[in-house]
Design a protein that fits this description.
This protein has 306 residues and is α+β, with helices and mostly antiparallel strands. The chain has six helices and 14 strands.
Length: 306
């Protein structure tokens, strides 16, 4: 049976650095920090981060070239050391050993480093797609230590985007768990249902709508259990449990390829001889499945999408 308490200790949820947002208004903040050898710099290249031999983030001192790069102020630690992120240009060594995508290391990074890495990747993704003003199309430039982009033509400010999505462990009256395979999944992959929150919608309403749309099931007893930044590219996954009022599955054409109710014994068998793949250990999806199962699962970390 599931516990009555929210799940805790999710990867990427911190606590991270003290963001020290009040310092972002200082126009000299980034030049000052880049001139201080005590500043810690985390580089990012095409969504990949430098990782050391112990699977931790590899920080460095500022380089002179950093002054010509896009830089964001990430915050400070308890010792008042400042941390910044730097977007480096891609090089031939991008995929060499020592650089990794966040998905590959999220489960093993210390809590503070995971939260900081998620912040930097989300900001880098936002900057990469918001170089133009959505109002007039003119170029935008980073201000406020990388936390705002300002239109060079009309002066409007634009802020980092976060896209909330609900993700839910749906169970029936017999405490079976519903898993589904989306149209972009590998043939052996299945996960709990998820979907983006629509304008004017509560989170509970989004849970009910997504389940009804994707598999034709009505749910009640929607219960919040945790949330997780998921910067791929700019998501916030908000996790729930929900109880199904009916179990007949009517799959949404073009979006859900397969769905199935599992007992715990059936999930064990599927993960074994059937070769079922479920989300990786860093994801809230995996934790929702394990929360229902009642223990960690031995299934390896694998990519579910084609």
């Amino acid at each position: 049976m599931t516990t009555p308490f929210p799940i805790a200790g999710l990867a990427l949820t911190g606590p991270g650095l003290e963001r020290s947002a009040e310092r972002r208004t200082d126009a000299l903040l980034l030049p000052t920090l880049l001139g201080d050898p005590a500043t810690r710099v985390l580089a990012i290249r095409r969504g990949r981060l430098p990782i050391d031999a112990t699977d931790r983030l590899r920080w460095r001192a500022p380089h002179p070239d950093d002054r010509d790069r896009l830089v964001v102020f990430l915050g400070t630690d308890g010792e008042h050391t400042a941390y910044v992120g730097v977007m480096e240009d891609p090089t031939e060594s991008d995929r060499d050993e020592g650089w990794a995508g966040l998905r590959a290391v999220a489960a093993t990074l210390p809590a503070a480093e995971g939260a900081t890495a998620a912040t930097l990747i989300a900001l880098a993704n936002w900057h990469a797609t918001h170089s133009r003003c959505p109002r007039c199309g003119a170029p935008t430039e980073p201000v406020l230590a990388g936390w705002v982009r300002r239109c060079a033509e009309d002066g409007s400010d634009h802020f980092p985007r976060t896209d909330p999505a609900v993700i839910m462990a749906v169970t029936d009256a017999d405490d079976r768990l519903l898993l589904a395979r989306g149209s972009g999944f590998l043939a052996a992959g299945m996960s709990v249902l998820a979907g983006f929150v629509e304008p004017g919608e509560t989170l509970a309403a989004a849970v009910a709508r997504e389940v009804a749309e994707e598999v034709g099931v009505t749910v009640t007893e929607v219960e919040y259990v945790g949330d997780q930044p998921w910067p791929f590219p700019t998501g916030l996954m908000i996790g729930f449990r929900a109880r199904a009022r009916d179990t007949a599955l009517r799959l949404r054409d073009g979006e859900i390829e397969a769905a199935r109710w599992f007992t715990r014994a059936e999930l064990d068998a599927a993960l074994g001889e059937e070769g079922l793949r479920i989300p990786g250990r860093a994801s809230i999806a995996r934790r929702l499945i394990e929360d229902w199962y009642g223990a960690p699962l031995e299934a390896p970390d694998t990519m579910l999408r084609r």
